[in-house]
Design goal:
This protein has three helices and four strands. By secondary structure, it is α+β, with helices and mostly antiparallel strands. It has one domain (27-116): Nucleotidyltransferase, domain 5 (2-Layer Sandwich). The chain has a four-stranded mixed β-sheet. The protein is globular, with a radius of gyration of 16 Å. The relative contact order is 0.19.
Length: 120
């Protein structure tokens, strides 16, 4: 059998390492939960998590949004998660960017959440 080169995804591995480094410093509590962000090539997802109990309190994503650019959709997801958080009486959160750089879609989601009234 011929030697097979191991295929790695360097960009994904770097993001996962960054996320592990970030998570070593961040944790969501019941009073101040964690807003976790994940983005794929097509969608962006956000969750508000209580790490003490290991429970997702609120989640929102851009899968139902049909019109607009990805940045506009991310802003709407941020506003949606903020309004849902206000309904659950959550005012402040810890922002977990998930190892992604804080530009573009992630920044638009954070700005939308701030616009909706969440404090970081």
């Amino acid at each position: 059998m011929a030697y097979q080169k191991r295929i790695t995804n360097k960009k994904r591995d770097s993001r996962i390492r960054r996320h592990a480094r970030i998570r070593s410093h961040l944790a969501g509590t019941e009073s101040i939960p964690r807003l976790a962000v994940f983005k794929s090539n097509r969608y962006i997802y956000a969750q508000i998590i209580n790490d003490d109990k290991g429970v997702t309190i609120i989640s929102a994503d851009s899968r139902k949004e049909k019109k607009g650019t990805m940045i506009e959709k991310a802003g709407k997801v941020g506003e949606t998660i903020a309004t849902l958080a206000k309904d659950k009486k959550i005012n402040s959160i810890v922002f977990d960017r998930g190892g992604f750089y804080f530009t573009g879609h992630v920044k638009a989601l954070a700005d939308g959440a701030r616009k909706g009234g969440l404090k970081f």
